[in-house]
Design a protein that fits this description.
The termini are far apart. The strands form 2 sheets. Strands 1-2 form a two-stranded antiparallel sheet. The chain has a two-stranded antiparallel sheet with strand order 3-4. It is α+β, with helices and mostly antiparallel strands. It has one domain. About 25% of the residues lie in helices and about 20% in strands. It binds zinc ion. Zinc ion (ZN) binds next to α1. Zinc ion binds next to α1.
Length: about 70
Amino acid sequence: MAKTKRGRILWSLPSRGRGTCPVCDSKRIKLLYTRTTTDGSSLKVCKKCFNAVQERVDAAAVHGKD
Ligand SMILES: [Zn+2]
């Protein structure tokens, strides 16, 4: 599989693969990882938060809705 997390491919993504991580609130960080919440929705998170506990991902998803 082609590398999807580094190099030129990032420039073809919306915002060049960057944004604000909903879990840790880092600005302009690369959001290249998808976590799924317990209610089944998916969330793009940064590399650090890919390894975050499920509760933090769920909390971020709820926070993002309001
Ligand atoms: Zn993060």
